[in-house]
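User: I'm new to structure prediction. If I give you an amino acid sequence, what do you actually give back? Let's try with this one:
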Amino acid sequence: MKRLITLLSLALPVLLSGCSDEKDILPEQRQKIVSYLEKTHAPALIPEASVGEDGQLPFYTTAGSTVYRYIVNYYRPDRESDPEVTADSKVTITFRAYVFSYSNITDSTFPFYSNDPLLLKAYEDLGLTPGAWSFEPLTLDMRGDILKGLRHALLGCRAKDEVEAYMTYNEAFGDKYFTTIPRESPVAWYFRVESVE
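Assistant: Good question. You get back a string of structure tokens that encode the predicted 3D arrangement of the chain. For your 197 residues, that looks like this:
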């Protein structure tokens, strides 16, 4: 019995530290995304609550618990007259999806999935079989089965919006491996809202 108690006393800190690490992932990812948006992103962004009434500063919003959205062309004229995405909408988007590493995504950063026709040649050069993926705009029914974080990012957008959405793993693909995406990976979706019905 004494030996069992000794083994448990040695194993317990290891077991508890493993649980603690998992609980630390989500707050750490939140902190890293916010730090990236406010310090590294070009342009640097501020939280929506910090935007003054007459200011036109670039800002991010938070949707769900951990989806951070930046509408690149938010201040375009007549944006308010474009149709808005609601929970009952059908939305057509052109997108690029990335595993997010808390650094700037550039033209040389390759997405894990996209329907952007500008990338078709690059995918073919990598050996993608033509026809394996569609490079047509994707239509999503907001009432259907959509990635939770993408749903949060789309709600409130308007037709013609160009959007960057950064999400923690729980809003993306979760704690399991998903094709080429490592478990517990934050992701970024860059998309243009082509139309809203």
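You can read the tokens as a compact description of the fold. Here is one thing that stands out. The CA atoms of residues 84 and 158 lie 4 Å apart.
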